[in-house]
Amino acid sequence: MMILKKQYIAYQAIVLNEIVRILRIWSQSLLPPAITMALYFIIFGALIGSQLHSIEGFSYVQYIAPGLIMMPIITASYVNTLGSFYMAKFHRNIEEVLVSPMPNYIILLGYVSGSVIRASFIGGIVTIVALFFTHVQMHHLFFAILIVFLASILFALIGFTNAIFAKSFDDISFVPNFILTPLTYLGGVFYSIKLLPTVWRHVSLFNPVVYIINVFRYGFLGISDVNIAIALGVILLFIVVFFMIDLYLLRRGVGVRE
Amino acid sequence: MMKALSIKNLQKTYKNNIHALQDVDLDVEEGDFFALLGPNGAGKSTLIGIVTSLVTKTAGKVSIFDYDIETDFSAAKACIGVVPQEFNFSIFDKVIHIMMTQAGYYGLPRQIAYARAEKYLKKLNLWDRRKQSVRSLSGGLKRRLMIARALVHEPKLLILDEPTTGIDIELRRATWDFLQELNQKGTTIILTTHYLEEAEYLCKNVAIIHQGRIIENTNVKSLISTLDVETFVFDLTAPLNLDFSVNGFKTYMSDSHTLEVDVPKARSLNDVFRVLLEKNIAVKSMRNKVNRLEELFVRLINK
Asked: Which domain range does residue B255 map to?
């Protein structure tokens, strides 16, 4: 077995490679979320939001700010592993990783860490953008930071699953466009799920994004539609399940070995 | 002597029910320079794919320096360096970044990795281009970069899948010299190639694979010694009629100045010269018509 120090160096190599890639494509990876979120804050915060009632004692723009910061974090962590691993398959440089002695869990951790780093960068950038439009208060910094890590780990893992199965560029755009975006928009970014009819409120509880947005909002504002402990439990459960699925797929060589 | 590669009863059947490898047994001794020859679709790349873990075997056992590729996969993989047939870089990456990243995959600390990168990039005349992105390199330089990359962790076994495809003669010769030097220093080398001259020039031992089976496994010299007939080409100083022939030999005039003669192993080349002298035919130069190994190769796969 590759000794731990060597495994750590191999892990660093993947992470560093990811950072170089993220910075090389900064105009695609870091800039667009800042522009998009600025537009969201202008439209939903300043223009429409100013006409709306407060929610649970907070102005509308304050209420949606945590969700707007979390949205690009989720998207970035998903598309980072998806894009990076799929392109490594496409250019076939993934073969160099597979031929090397590093174990599968290091490969997975490396790619996931790359996504967490990109998501954290974006989280920071979008938070700075938010400060131009609203007063951002911090109720529980620990929960806010914790959920950024957990959310980016979870969606990086799901993006990795997508990348493993992807055989074409169509395959890498289908899930982000037709599954991830609806889940995010219906995940309580712009509204409290308490406002929904009972049936839809219950349906929403099957959406993991609801738990992520609410824990993040709890970190900022101290309010949540769901129990925080249950939310964290659900997210952790999803992380464990997808980690095991990805490891299993790598071990079986699905999508990467013939 | 230890076996660098040991393959027993290896089989591979793809999902579309194609039997790419059937009961393949193969041993490569440590220090060998070994050629794996075969026509397209013979199973060479599948075999290399299994050894390097990019292809999953259906049955059989593969060991690298006595490490089983399944049970001791980490130790086995650490012994191998692979130069694939097709370029597999991220084309936007810089040369030095590719080398450093590769070294990292094998757990080399950055200081050692940089020294190794410098060593092999200099050996392969790429050091001056270390800050260039891969897409700015020519095909030949990309191929040399793949060799440098495969060597950065100094593997005991280097596997090259058609390493000189698409590179010019000068660069090919330089690559051959480099590989020979590497082999003399102790690295076991296995190569697949379509240039049979390459195998004849470089390799000590050879296996010929056809339709997923090893049909010949011997040393290059003894394989060539089994040739019955060799064709020699004589460049003549004066023109001859196109129906000219040398008695007792199969001959062919490819043009008025070029005579080709099949010389059986039992006969002497002197017999040909004797006839030519008798007829006052002056020879300017002489050479083999085709690569001898190529002749053997065609004969073996047509058996």
From this structure: 229-290
ipTM of the complex: 0.87
Q: Do B167 and B139 form a contact (C-beta atoms < 8 A)? A: yes
B123 plus B238 within the same structural domain: no
3-state secondary structure of B82: strand
A4 in B contact zone (CB under 8 Å): no
- How does pLDDT run across A21-68, given as a tens digit for each residue? 999 888 888 889 899 988 988 888 778 877 888 888 888 888 999 999
CB contact (8 A) between residue B84 and residue A88: no
Which of B53, B89, B107 comes nearest A7 by C-beta? B107
pTM: 0.85
Question: What's the gap in Å between the CA of B103 and the closest CA on chain A?
Answer: 8
- The 10s digit of each residue's pLDDT in B113-162 is 999 999 999 999 899 999 999 999 988 889 999 999 999 999 999 999 88
Q: How far is A81 from chain B (nearest CA, A)?
A: 16
3-state SS, residue B245: coil
Structural domain includes residue A257: no
Q: Indicate whether B149 and B250 sit together in one domain.
A: no
Task: For residue A258, tell me if it sits in a domain.
Answer: no
Q: Helices H, strands E: what count in chain B?
A: 10, 14
User: Of B293, B208, B217, which is closest to residue B38 (Cα–Cα)?
Assistant: B208
Nearest Cβ partner for B84 among A9, A95, A101? A95
